[in-house]
Design a protein that fits this description.
The chain has 144 residues and is mostly helical. It has helices at residues 3-14, 29-49, 56-74, 87-101, 107-115, 117-130, 134-138.
Length: 144
Amino acid sequence: MNIPRVGLLRRFVYTKGRTLPDIQSGLPFVMRWMMPLLSRRFLRAGIGHGIGRHTEAEVYEMGIKDLKAISIHLGNRPFFTGEKATEVDCAMFGLLAQFLWNSNGGPLEKIVKDELPNLKAFCERMKEHFWPDWNRCLNPPRIT
């Protein structure tokens, strides 16, 4: 499965960290200065893995094919292994949630939101079941 590496290449190589939501401006100066170094490191890791040897369009196409295969496997079931969530569902949620809520308009976000409604519904189901306080956790009260 190429999904984790596709997300990594998009965030740190193709956009050079500029799409990191709400974090980029809050990063310490040193981290912003190091982003080009991290970008090169992740590109080298991608090349070593093999996926980084492809064009950006090819990498996205691999990610789209993976998402479609995952969608077919899930089908109409509420969870990947049936009626109850398992560790597999937790792992898949971790991979898929980034495209729904942390992708800043990337091509895989569009696919999950527009073309693969069962993956989006799966993520919403997992979120509601395991994190009913999701929004509160993301927006903790500020200490003044």
